[in-house]
Amino acid sequence: MSSPEPARSAHPARAAGLALIGVAALALVIGVASLFTGGDDDQPGAQPPGSSSETATTGSPGSESPSSTSSRPQPTTTAPTTPAPTSTTGVPAGAPTTTPPPPVTPTTKPPVRVYNNGTIANLAARASEDVRKVGWDVVETGNYSQGVIPTTTVYFRPGTDEEASAQQLAQALRAEVKPRFDGIEGAHPGIIVIVTNDYQGPSGKI
After folding, report:
1. Which region, left, alpha or beta, applies to residue 128 given φ > 0 means left and ψ of -120 to 50 means alpha?
2. Structurally, how many domains does the chain consist of?
3. Model pTM?
4. In this structure, is residue 161 part of a structural domain?
């Protein structure tokens, strides 16, 4: 009986086919694995964009990249300045103004000497009392006979603090005020009052 023999020869053929299918499947698996793991090995030494070597290459001397171009300092322009408006006095508008200080009042009043140059008896003594009443100290009273004084006058030494005090005293006595003249220039320091017949005094009475 020869029928069983073909059946036995079919088993080795089937086994060989299964082996070929297994080899093909294994090759497929290896090919897929190499596709995912060996893509970066196609170009040895290549590095992905953004790596340190690419950054160094783009920033090398002599190269010009967009980043280096944008970092160049841009020329700046300065707008012309408009001068501040000034007033008619030449002082900038809005500038703080300073008020001149008030005149300095002497703290210590110089001594006063009163001389009569008129024809009214005891005129110097009366004028001395008026001088003391308005706040000055009279240290001497007498007559002046070296010339004729046209009007009652308060005299001071120029360039001294007597000037401001003499102006105040002359205003209180309603008299004139002048620098010393040659006839009394070398007299004692202080204010000299020479009264004449027109002397009025603080109250307007002689």
Report:
1. alpha
2. 1
3. 0.49
4. yes
Give me the tens of pLDDT residue by residue for the chain, a chain 206 residues long.
Answer: 444 544 455 566 666 777 778 777 777 777 766 666 654 544 444 454 444 444 434 444 444 444 444 456 565 666 666 665 555 555 556 656 677 666 555 468 999 999 999 999 999 999 999 999 999 999 999 999 999 999 999 999 999 999 999 999 999 999 999 999 998 999 999 999 999 999 999 965 55
User: Does the residue 156 lie in any domain?
Assistant: yes
What is the CATH number for 139?
3.30.70.2390
In a domain, 165, yes or no: yes
- DSSP characters over the chain: --THHHHHHHHHHHHHHHHHHHHHHHHHHHHHHHHHHSGGGSSTT---TTSHHHHHHHTSTT---HHHHHTSPPP---PPPPPPPB-TTSSBTTPPP-PPPPPPPPSSPPPEEEEE-SSSTTHHHHHHHHHHHTT--EEEEEE--SS--SS-EEEE-TTSTHHHHHHHHHHHHT-EEEE--GGGTTS-SSEEEEE-TT---TTS--
Domain around 167: 119-187
Rounded CA gap, 33 and 26, in Å? 11
Inter-helix orientation angle 123-133/162-173, to 10°? 110
Judge whether 18 lies within some domain: no
